[in-house]
Amino acid sequence: MRVNCEGCAGCCIDWRPVAPETLDHERRGRRDPLDDTYNLVPLTRDEVKTFLDEGLADAMTPRLFRADGRTNSVTVDGYDLAAIDGGPVFYVGLRKPPKPVGPFGLDPTWLDTCIFLDPETLRCRIHGSELYPATCGDYPGQNLTLDRETECERVERSYGGERLLDDDPPEKLRGFALGPQALGAKLFVYPDPEELTGVVDRLADGETAAADRALFVGAAVGSRPGTTAVDGEKAERGRKRALEANSWAGAVIEAWTRRAGRPGDDAEVRADRSELEERRGAPPTEEW
Ligand code: SF4
Ligand code: SF4
């Protein structure tokens, strides 16, 4: 597997507003996500814990799934959610605030973008650090292994150029977890659906509060790998710590959200896009 990522970041940006075709690979009728985020990066339990320990819980957000009629479900706020043993299943991923980015040679455009992507250089701020998610490190290896289309190919089709230079699946994948192996390790079960009254509505509207997101961070770190069980004390400690997070990531999300136009709108050409984030504490990026 070899990819040409310079000037792309297609897998880090929600580029649907500037795509000539409909991009719906995440929403094809089986356990559709409740939220509208594009390419949410699912974190492992250990990664959620590392972000929490680093004070970056405010960079994370949960994803619930709509029930497909064939799976177990539980209804909260009028939504039928995919569930196991009566608890809604969820991932924890990275937040995507609007940022002024110019992927594929475009002029700066307001597009929802991973909090860790430098909007100017289109490089990942946590690449090579202990925070770098295994799913990002693998990408697009999991798709190649499962013989599924990659974001690189979608970008090539829409904007030309060569992105996927070698499509041989890698021999090793760090973040691959399917079926029961994923339970409590990457796919979690929220133990008490009643606690999610109101939260699910806000999640569906893309308007979660810090307290909502902290509930899921707590439940993820309290989860026992390989099971649906959640240690209530660990979860509560995790929730409280998540709620205390006050990181550069939260400050950057606030700063860009305040300035943002609508998704797909032209953004002002400004020379300080990296600095705006780094002044708030974002780590600088490395050269390609
Ligand atoms: S879509 Fe492919 S080429 Fe583009 S940044 Fe992601 S991995 Fe790299
Ligand atoms: S963590 Fe880095 S590589 Fe992963 S989606 Fe965010 S910016 Fe992209």
Question: What this model shows, in words?
Answer:
With about 290 residues, the protein is an alpha+beta fold. It has one domain (about 1-95, about 125-245). The chain contains 9 helices and 9 strands. The protein has helices spanning about 45-55, 135-140, 140-145, 150-160, 200-205, 210-220, 230-245, 250-260, 275-280, and strands at about 1-5, 60-65, 75, 80-85, 85-95, 100, 110, 165, 190. Strands 2, 3, 4, 5 and 9 form a 5-stranded antiparallel beta sheet that branches. Strand 6 and strand 7 (about 110) form a beta hairpin. Helix 6 runs antiparallel to helix 7. The longest helix has 13 residues, at about 230-245. It is globular, with a radius of gyration of 18 Å. It starts with a strand and ends in a 10-residue tail after the last helix. One iron/sulfur cluster binds near residues 94, 114, 126 and 133. One iron/sulfur cluster (SF4) binds near residues 117, 133 and 136.
> In what range is the share of β-strand residues?
5-15%
Class by helix and strand content? alpha+beta
Task: Give the N-terminus to C-terminus distance in angstroms.
Answer: 17 Å
Bin the helical content. 25-40%
- Cα-atom Rg, whole angstroms? 18 Å
Number of E-type strands: 9
Q: Poorly predicted ranges (pLDDT <50, ≥5 residues)? A: none
Quick one: overall form? globular
